[in-house]
Amino acid sequence: MVALAVACQPAADPNAGGEGTAAGPAAAPVAEAEPAVAAPTANDAFRAVGTEPVWMAEVGAGGDTALRVEVDYGQTHYEVAAPTHGPDGWAGAAADGTPIKLSVQRVPCQHDGSGEMADAKAMLTVGTRQLHGCGSFSAAQ
């Protein structure tokens, strides 16, 4: 049996200004700072709720990419079949042309009604109405 061991060295940085070689001492890796607010990813399922008036929005439920919204105490429903996904949430237009945007900020949020803590603050924009609440992420299934 023959075993091979291979060591990898980073290549010299051509922008370093000096003459470095791949065989020279390896520079310590530079740790990148974590962003203070992590953006939602396309694989995240998210559900948000708010009060005054009661509303609900969810995206990515059951692995589906649609953005579903209920406002006015569940009396009015919207669905954005294929919302665009950006660094702060999801957006698109419902079948009737109403613009819908669900903005998410990953900071702890306390629900007004129940006092429970959630993963994020959420702002739902339906047309010109802005509704505020809290939401939580889970992996899309």
From TrEMBL:
Q: Which domain of life is it from?
A: Bacteria
Descriptive protein name: Uncharacterized protein
- The organism named in the record is Stenotrophomonas chelatiphaga
Classification from the root reads: Bacteria, Pseudomonadati, Pseudomonadota, Gammaproteobacteria, Lysobacterales
